[in-house]
Amino acid sequence: MTVDSTAARKPRRGGSKRAGAKTAAAAGAPELVQLLTPEGERVEHPDYSIDLTAEELRGLYRDMVLTRRFDAEATTLQRQGELGLWASLLGQEAAQIGSGRATRPDDYVFPTYREHGVAWCRGVDPTNLLGMFRGVNNGGWDPNENNFHLYTIVIGSQALHATGYAMGITKDGADSAVIAYFGDGASSQGDVAEAFTFAAVYNAPVVFFCQNNQWAISEPTEKQTRVPLYQRAQGYGFPGVRVDGNDVLACLAVTKAALDRARTGQGPMLIEAFTYRMGAHTTSDDPTRYRRDEERELWEAKDPIARLRAYLEREGHADEAFFAALETESDELAKHVRDRVRTMPDPDDMAIFDNIYADGHALVDEERAQFAAYQASFAEESH
Amino acid sequence: MTAQKLSIVKAINASLRTALENDPKVLVMGEDVGKLGGVFRVTDGLQKDFGEDRVIDTPLAESGIVGTAIGLALRGYRPVVEIQFDGFVFPAYDQIVTQLAKMHARALGKIKLPVVIRIPYGGAIGAVEHHSESPETLFAHVAGLKVVSPSNASDAYWMLQQAIQSDDPVIYFEPKRRYHDKSELDTEAIPAPLHAARVARPGTDLTLAAYGPMVKTCLEAAAAAEEEGKSLEVLDLRSMSPVDFDAIQASVERTRRLVVVHEAPVFLGTGAEIAARITERCFYHLEAPVLRVGGYHAPYPPSRLEDEYLPGLDRVLDAVDRALAY
């Protein structure tokens, strides 16, 4: 069996860029659910169909464009010293917007630290996502406000939180579902394996959404697994499917189906969104040390935004005025984000001691008082 | 049920039963806690009475147990998880330290993590490797966690009630070698605050501070010392995070000497912290340096050697003599 992650990285002899998406199936590699080809042609899939209005299609396009713009602005802000670090989602917009738009408001999302597009879909203020990267907080939002949990940095931990939350939904007799995001690197973590075990054993309504972006910092997928990741699910007793992660329609259709499955008591499912991280792992990373330019070029031909635009234009679902207006909206978003970040206040000194315990703690109280007295001593000296 | 004599195992069982009855959001989770009733039978009969949905047998995966408990807490449940043995908590240590302890603060206080982690701990039961450890310091060192250990049936019952009602994560260390010791439990009493130390035996010449399994050892030491005309006060600390330093200070101001006793290694242990703080607070009251009796900087030894490793009556009395000799 061919491991498709390798196949995708190395252009097949004689294969052209245009053949890209179709070669996978043709070569006997794992089938990829696809509804929109890299050229922007609409194709059907026997198990996952979707019928969207022109307005809905434009909505998905708008989500992806604005998310990409927000992400680019955050990268720029990092380069300008306004953020300490940024984890870009460039290239993964379709995976995130497709899956994010598949969720219902009462569903609960457990992200890793790169799910800016999913946060966008959940209505999280994008500037909230930047506090952690600017260093003004370690999370910074109320997860229950949009049912979008805090970003989780330790790889794969959140898969268990998602599973536990889903077990709670079952106990409540509710028909909500949970979606847990993680990457191909996280698939090697014990916590993800344990989450699969618990989810299967308790038939928890959780969808595991793995964005296989081909690289875990500098480690390629082959360093994580010898089988296509979606096939892992079978060993735990639930279905797994590989979807074209650069195809927003396929990501939406497959995630919707998986969430519906979960809500109707049919248990967990693993979705492997086969995609590509176009940029660095984070702004601290240098991908030129471990991957070739040709690889990125190969994936640029599968760009999620370009392909939806091609489809919208071909079908006449969007006109020039729409694209122009979106460009303006994009600029406004970027300016808003820039202004908000630059004026984001540093936390109060005493925040060190805030919210460590819900019920208080004598040592924290004592140290808070000592710290306050120490700080106050400077004020007294200056008098 | 009002006042009666009960073992610690039965008191914890009664406490879990009360919590399950009083609050439908309370769950008991862990390996073998259901039909078997736990390897120490602490959860005996609970699944039979409350069902598999409330008393949950889990897969054999400690990180999974704690990680899913966090998710359940986020959904509004109050999970009480059992880690089968002290040395088995480390696969879950990441979830406890990097996730459970910090999540309330990361969410700016908007979410609560009412998770209790019960860990049977300590030695003297002739067990194999990883079954006799005292890792309390590793948890007490982490902000966001509370760490307690009862030494008798009444505290076992009430401190667990308080831990379950707390909106903070609590690590509840059960002194497994004392599981079957019986003492008075009044389920209608008004309990002391969870983190308050208790004078287990008043005395005038020296304070022995201990918690969990070592409280009984210290009480025995105090009884033996009395025969030699020495009056030792025994303080049951009950909580390692936070530590009731005010109570220790008050005791030391009376007795002017302090020996801290625990099974965990002395190096960087609870006793080290207490010695440092009490030296700061009571420098002019102390007639002797604060001494510590505890485990060595060595892996917990094979059980044929554990009597040498663990603080026993003689080692405690030796430290008492040294402190009184200053």
From TrEMBL, chain A:
Record Pfam families: E1_dh (PF00676)
UniProt xrefs under Gene3D superfamilies: 3.40.50.970
Domain Dehydrogenase E1 component residues, every copy: 62-340
Annotated keywords: Oxidoreductase, Pyruvate, Thiamine pyrophosphate
Region (Disordered): 1-26
Tree of life domain: Bacteria
Cofactor or coenzyme needed: thiamine diphosphate
Biased amino acid composition, Basic residues: 9-20
UniProt cross-references to PANTHER family, sorted A to Z: 2-OXOISOVALERATE DEHYDROGENASE SUBUNIT ALPHA, MITOCHONDRIAL (PTHR43380:SF1)
Name the UniProt record assigns to this protein: Pyruvate dehydrogenase (Acetyl-transferring) E1 component subunit alpha
Organism name: Streptomyces aureoversilis
Lineage: Bacteria, Bacillati, Actinomycetota, Actinomycetes, Kitasatosporales
UniProtKB/TrEMBL annotation, chain B:
InterPro entries: THDP-binding, Transketo_C/PFOR_II, Transketolase-like_Pyr-bd, Transketolase_C
Pfam families referenced in this protein's UniProt entry, alphabetically: Transket_pyr (PF02779), Transketolase_C (PF02780)
Domain Transketolase-like pyrimidine-binding: 6-181
Cofactor: thiamine diphosphate
Keywords: Oxidoreductase, Thiamine pyrophosphate
GO molecular function: magnesium ion binding; oxidoreductase activity
Origin superkingdom: Bacteria
PANTHER family: PYRUVATE DEHYDROGENASE E1 COMPONENT BETA SUBUNIT, PYRUVATE DEHYDROGENASE E1 COMPONENT SUBUNIT BETA
Name by which UniProt lists this protein: Alpha-ketoacid dehydrogenase subunit beta
